[in-house]
Design brief:
Layout: H1 2-14, E1 18-20, H2 30-46, E2 52-58, H3 67-76, E3 78-86, H4 90-95, H5 102-114, E4 118-123, H6 132-144, H7 150-153, H8 164-171, H9 192-204
Parallel strand pairs: 1-2, 2-3, 3-4
């Protein structure tokens, strides 16, 4: 297997024992991806040197039926998961076109924590259509799961020039004069309460 061979070669040459697999979702594509993970785990478990491996995954990437695979991953050295949560608010998730729900995110976090993984999450707390309620929801669930640090609450949606999101926010008249393809965070908030909260968060950072 190419990934395993690359790990072993890097270890032999540099002595490295910690690795980041940078696929956007380790388990993709579905059953084929999970079969590949299982094969990698078997090779890692059989190898005399033990490694630590970090990986990226999605909210619907693993389910309860994958518990034996996740347990084997921990045994093989998979330790840290970056989970693409993005938001705990369903309106935010719809706005981001994520095709997942708050319930999906919670189920994924509960499963991964229960299997013993350390978790961080890809997260966007603020966007031009944020509301006080969406920010409160993100705060409550972030606190519950231990994602309680300044930069997490100050994460903002980047509006990339020419994208579908750019057109949508421009049509709403929410782009600031200071917006550019470089300054992608320069926008107004549609909701005044959200604008006030975002300003207070930026001052606290």
């Amino acid at each position: 297997m190419d990934v395993f061979n690359e790990i072993v070669q890097t270890y032999d040459q540099y002595g490295a024992v910690a690795y980041q697999i940078t696929d956007s979702a380790l388990e993709s594509p579905g059953s084929i991806g999970k079969k590949r993970i299982l094969e990698l785990c078997d090779l890692l478990i059989q190898y005399p040197q033990k490694f630590t491996i970090n990986f990226n995954t999605r909210a619907r990437g693993f389910c309860k039926e994958d518990r034996p695979l996740l347990d084997k991953m921990r045994k093989a050295g998979f330790l840290f998961a970056l989970l693409g949560v993005e938001s705990f608010d369903n309106n935010d998730l719809c706005f981001y076109n994520k095709r997942v729900t708050q319930a999906d995110n919670i189920a994924a976090l509960d499963l991964l924590f229960d299997c013993g993984f350390y978790i961080d999450c890809g997260f966007i707390n603020l966007n031009p259509l944020s509301t006080a309620e969406s920010i409160k929801t993100n705060y409550q669930f972030s606190k519950k799961y231990g994602f309680f640090y300044d930069y997490h609450f100050n994460t903002k949606l980047s509006i990339f020039y020419g994208s579908e999101m750019y057109v949508k926010i421009k049509d709403l008249g929410l782009l600031k004069d200071s917006y550019s393809y470089i300054n992608t965070l320069e926008y107004h908030y549609l909701n005044p309460d959200a604008a006030h909260i975002a300003e207070r968060l930026s001052c606290a950072n």
